[in-house]
Amino acid sequence: MKYLENERLNTISSELSDVVLGDSHRIIQGRIEAYSMKRGGKDKKFAYALGQKYLAEMEDMQEELAATVERVARKRSNSDVSLSVSSFKRVKSAENTASVANDTSNNGDGTQPTDAVVQRRRSKSFDFTLESNNPKTTLGDFSELSTRRLMTDLILTLNSSFPDYDFSNVKPSQFQKVKVDVVRKNIYAKLSELASQQRNPNWLVELWMSLNEVIELKECDVYSFDFNEVEDALWSFHYFFVNKNLKRVVFFTCNELIDEEEIRSSSDEEQEERVRYYNSEAQLVDDFDWDPSDNVAGGMSFEVTMS
């Protein structure tokens, strides 16, 4: 993945880096990075290796599923044979009893109850499906090339953004597709306190507009990633904005943490002070429909005033 230099995103990233919130010992750490989804030489080799790994896992999954189905079918067949032998014995016993009693009427004491028993026992069997062998994931159907490519692109982005980590073994379940508007509201809420410290009252709105200029949010699929980069973080989010038409992805990662060293070096009175944590919605004016899928009018812009 090729890193795309963008002056505005660099400025925002600097405003999100090592920022102390008010008089507290809480720090915001975040950055926004844009990458091209066009793969270079190393990326192609890595993507090919990942692709082969996924194909091997798919084959193993299919073989395991086939073996499981075969075992279930064998058990079911053996059960049917046992039931047939048992049914035959019961039928013969019923016929003998009827013959001794000289009862020529068929009142259901012969084959009819036996069929019912067979039916009841067979109803306990079921079609076996193993959830871990299901190719459908939170990213889509893994048997499709497009889904595997998406997974590879997200991993390549993570490897580029966090060079000290290896994300080769990340699972699809760690990604979740989310709506653009839900993401916007969460970012506004998490960064509202930081926004209140900015000179620009519309700092958050301009952040979102800058993001839109780079990635065209209306054309994006957005994915969240479950990753605890910092264990003691009060909160964190990691969002991928993927625009397949532009062949571009923007990665927005941010967390809030406690500065333990600053706390240890502070006075006893300061240590006793209660840490205030804000998670409220920003009071902003946003006049754009960021999620056209929720708008009956088909994605037309409209005015919304949050008071």
Automatic annotation (TrEMBL):
Region of interest (Disordered), ranges: 95-116
Protein name, as recorded: Repressor of RNA polymerase III transcription
Protein's cellular compartments: Nucleus
GO CC aspect terms: nucleus
Keywords: Nucleus, Repressor, Transcription, Transcription regulation
One record GO biological process: negative regulation of transcription by RNA polymerase III
Source organism superkingdom: Eukaryota
Family classification: Belongs to the MAF1 family.
Principal subcellular localisation of the protein: nucleus
GO molecular function, one term: RNA polymerase III core binding
Bias kind Polar residues: ranges: 95-114
